[in-house]
Specification:
Radius of gyration: 20 Å
Number of strands: 4
Strand order of the largest sheet: 1-2-3-4
Oligomer: single chain
Largest sheet: 4 strands, antiparallel
């Protein structure tokens, strides 16, 4: 489900908005995976859409035979643009780089070690590398 954009009367680019999310109820008993998203290069070319049965009472998904995944619905990323104007969500995603979150930080002792929390993950998907 993709919702938005949402217009907020009086809000201007750069404003901070408070959003209260009501509980989320699933409306249908299935989900799907179009083989896109974070790791599109791991999908087979022209792979069909995969229908995933959901158990709304147990809040689980039968991803594959023997693989049941707990569901925790959420609305994903939310935000307000820094500047006014049209934004293409796919275009901005291509420009996004995780590098700014994995900068090397030196300890004050000057030993040059990386903080564990700031180390680069073992594998960075090619589409996130520069």
């Amino acid at each position: 489900m993709l919702t938005g954009p949402v217009y907020v009367e009086g809000a201007e680019p750069g404003d901070v908005l408070e959003v209260k999310i009501q509980p989320i109820d699933l409306a249908i008993d299935y989900g799907y995976n179009g083989c896109k998203g974070v790791l599109p290069e791991s999908c087979e070319p022209n792979a069909p859409v995969r229908i995933i049965p959901l158990d709304r009472h147990r809040m689980t998904a039968q991803f594959a035979p023997g693989i049941v995944i707990p569901l925790r619905p959420f609305f994903g990323s939310m935000g307000a643009p820094i500047t006014a104007g049209w934004r293409d969500s796919l275009q901005s995603r291509r420009r996004f780089s995780c590098r700014r979150f994995h900068r090397k930080r030196r300890r004050r002792s000057g030993r040059g070690r990386l903080r564990r929390s700031m180390q680069r993950p073992a594998a960075v998907p090619p589409h996130l590398q520069r």
